[in-house]
Amino acid sequence: MKKIVMVCGLVILLILPFAGLLILSNLEQIEYQPSTELEIQEIAYGQAYPVEKMDLRESITVDGKGISAKYIFQDLKQYADPYKIRFIIDAGDYVINGETIGYYNSQPVLSTVTGIVSFINTGDDSYIRYKSTDEVELEITTDSQKAINILSQNNCSLTDEAGNVYTVIKEVKGKNQDSKTYLLQCNNASALEYDQEYEQLQLFTNQIYTQSLVVNQACVYSYPEKQDEYYVRIVDENNVFVEEKMVEVGYKSGNYISITGVKEGTLCDSGYGNLINGRDNLNDE
Fold first, then answer.
1. Domain locations in the chain?
2. Residue 3's pLDDT band (cuts 50, 70, 90)
3. Which helix H or strand E contains 30, and what residues bound it?
4. Burial of 185 (0-12, 13-18, 19+ CB in 10 A)
5. Domain 72-131's class?
6. For the whole model, what pTM was predicted?
7. What is the residue-wise DSSP string for 177-243?
């Protein structure tokens, strides 16, 4: 019996150190085991822009096209029988001064002007009418009520980003049912090219709003189901989402739009609007 007790005692003495190490190891694992609770943070979808104060110049954004400002005429009365002229040009052709445009009794008939052929009249009063490509006006068609209100003002004068001044000559009546068309003359003859398309042309008025609270237009968005409500997505200095806030929007100029409802210095996410709309939803109204 004593022998059995001694053997059991020795076994216990041998096992105790290993048991202690095992318990200690388990305690250390529990102590250094990472927390299973994760903090999820939503970050900005684009660059963050601050709400700031600045002088804002009123502007409109329009599409336009360079068109001829006047007609030029080439007289053909020097030919005894203009019906015998064999023209090698048609309406719409571009010709330059001195170019052969036809033949009369096998002799070349030369253009005396540079322009686009508009009309050829032969008879008692024979002439060729050209559209001038040197004198060009800007034709604007818009359905924006804001742009229409500005362009319809008396003596309306606008300036582009290069400093060129545009003056509204007239409204072209009856050209479009759902929009209005205007002709503008530029003080810089080289600023416009004939038949050139001008997309998203920004024109500034003389109205300046001093020290307006503004933010980059990309930061302001609306939801498809609530197009008359506008929001900004506020983030902190680490681009972490803080809150969404409804704002009131006003006039806009360039990349900026005036807003109320947030404080100066607030950082706003510029990428969320593109995510939910896939486009700029702040067109001129």
1. 50-66+136-277, 72-131
2. low
3. helix 2-32
4. middle
5. mainly beta
6. 0.67
7. SSSEEEEEEES-GGG--TT-EEEEEEEEEEEEEEEEEEEEGGG-EEETTEEEEEEEEEE-TTSBEEE
